[in-house]
Amino acid sequence: MKYIVFGEAEVIEEFKDSLTSNNELDITYFDIFNPIEDLEDFTQFDVIFDLSSDEMESAFLPYEILRDNQIIILNTVKTTLSEIKLTILSECNCQIFGINALPTFLGNKIKEVSILFDDNSQIADIHPVFEPLGWKYTVVKDRVGLVSARILFMIINEAFYTLEEGTSTKEDINIAMKLGTNYPKGPFEWVDEIGIEHIYEVLDAMQKDSHDDRYKICNALKSHYLKKSLVNHYNA
Q: How many angstroms separate the CA atoms of 233 and 230, rounded?
């Protein structure tokens, strides 16, 4: 089975680190920011991992030329697999799946996989893709944020509310969460590793998708996101 992995350099390295299989794997890695013309034959691969952190980057990949028996696995955290299928991949007849490939999540022992339909045959198709990689997985509902990001980012949002109230510092909140819940990291440590931009954008997408006030973004988190965005803009 031939694989190709598209993504930013950081995500590609995390993908490599996540491989636990001792099998000799035929994997080509491709930086999403390189011109797609550099790839000689896009149809030669059996499995395509499109792990861009911005799902709209998928629009630049020539999915319309793919074979029907190719499999596409997308980073679907800021949107749903269904929405991507109806927009970017409307003309593509391949099997498509969603995973969480935001920074740090590929290191999880169990990968979350979303599917378009509750179809046992579609679920069966993912096993021969993940098994050679040494990946264990669980099938989850096709929702913005999937499962682990929804839970973790809500915790981070609440941590920003606590910080905003002035009742504790970032350091104390990190310590309290690690000691009180036995989490491996504190909320603000996760912010540094995942990136405030991903957390903000997923929470924003969750709120727009559900119209649920539980996902309302804390002003302190939004402010942190905007400041980081301005710094990135002026440093670009």
A: 5
Q: Where, residue-wise, is CATH 1.10.1040.50 in the chain?
A: 148-235
Query: Which residue is associated with the tokens 């074979």?
Result: 67
| pLDDT, tens only, 65-89 | 788 888 999 999 999 999 988 888 8
Encoded tokens for 70: 């190719």
* Class in CATH terms, 2-140: alpha beta
What CATH architecture applies to the domain 148-235?
Orthogonal Bundle (1.10)
Whole-model pTM?
A: 0.90
pLDDT band with cut points at 50, 70 and 90 for residue 119: low
Where in the chain is CATH 3.40.50.720? Answer: 2-140
